[in-house]
Amino acid sequence: MIDPTISASPASVGPAPEGRRLRVAILGASGSVGTQTLDVCRRHADKVRVTALSVLGSTERLVSAAREFGVSAVAVVDETHGKDPILQELPAGCELGVGTDAALELVTRDDVDCVVCAVVGAAGIRGGYAALKAGKRLGYANKESIVVAGDLLMPLVKPGALVPIDSEHSAIFQCLRAERPSELERIWLTCSGGPFFGMNREELSHVTATDALRHPTWRMGAKITIDSATLMNKGLEVLEARRIFDAPLERISVLVHRQSRVHSMVEFSDGSVKAQLGPADMRIPIQYALSYPERWETPCARVDYAALGELTFEPVDEGAFGCLRLAREAGLAGGTIPCVLNAANEVANHAFRKGSCGFLDIERVVERTVDAFTRADVQSLEQLAEVDARARDHARNELRGLL
Questions:
Q1: What homologous superfamily is domain 22-165 in, according to CATH?
Q2: Is 168 assigned a ligand-binding role in the annotation?
Q3: What residue segments make up the domains of the chain, in order of their start?
């Protein structure tokens, strides 16, 4: 379990030294979480200094941010964009690296205290691993990394080194501060229910990617928005919570909370429940990952709870949304099976967004792919990369079989 306290020991990872701004590297700086992280840094320029940025291929956004924040180093992961003309406009003295290794080298720099890993999907595993190995604080918005490689990542986590950025896990992290892990009875993960809440499988068989991308509450990237519609996102969050907070799967429950104001709750052995409430704005958990253990002025409008009217909670229909069930089953199997689940889901999610399969086909492809693999203990990042590649190939074959 991660320790939501910062000690003064040399083995802990704390905030920036007194009188110096926190120096931050952002991996995936052009995506939804990356751009919102930049906004938090912009609002708190007296406390944060952005020193390094990486993007996949959005070089115009990279150059714009590098010039605004005066960063020391940048990386473009997609080598086909490594010579984009716009890169000539990087600020003087800014180092440019190209390729995956260049992005990983950013996290080991001496002028980086904290790494925000905002890379989507399994691609974020190596960045998080490198940050933890380098002794940096890691603000993690990449749940897939914990789900797939938790066996390798979590043993590297020192007190104060990992602060989750997912709104639900940030909420749990905050609720557990100053609490004893032995007194944890249940984690209640909340979800909005997505755009298809209340639909049955017949209705779900007709929805489109355009429908699925209309999330009722959160502003997110396309992949995670589709995952939220299938509830695979919530399934991955269940597995993430299990790993981060060392809680048995049977003690992690999911509730539909349409107002998206209670971001998650923790129940203790005496029946007491602590909840973290706030606006549906990702900048709050992002900011907390940077400010922890302090709190800074809010980056968004406050909630008028008197005007809110009601807070409701309902069970999840796992019969209609089977991806949540599949994630739980993968978590129970453990080992390399969550890697297979995640890889197959990324392939099917992408196919749905491109119009190559139906909404319910995502679940079918994931289930058939997982069933085709035998569990093995997790041993290395190289092993996981090989399992990931084989699972993606199998999922693509399953998709071809649906046509």
A1: NAD(P)-binding Rossmann-like Domain (3.40.50.720)
A2: yes
A3: 22-165, 180-279+304-402
> Does 215 carry a binding-site annotation?
yes
Nearest to 117 by CA among 158, 159, 145, 81: 145
Query: 221 a known binding residue?
Result: yes
Query: Was 349 annotated as part of a binding site?
Result: no
Query: Is there a binding annotation on residue 394?
Result: no
pLDDT digits (tens, 9 = 90+) for 248-270: 999 999 999 999 999 999 999 99
CA distance 66 to 72: 8
**Closest alpha carbon to 69 in 105, 111, 126:** 111
Residue range 180-279+304-402 forms a domain whose CATH class is mainly alpha
Is 166 annotated as ligand-binding? yes
pLDDT in tens, 365-388: 999 999 999 999 999 999 999 999
145 annotated as belonging to a binding site for a ligand? no
pTM of the predicted structure, to 2 decimals: 0.91
Report whether 144 belongs to an annotated binding site. Answer: yes
Question: ∠ CA 282-245-25 to the nearest 5 degrees?
Answer: 45
Q: Is 233 within any annotated ligand binding site?
A: yes
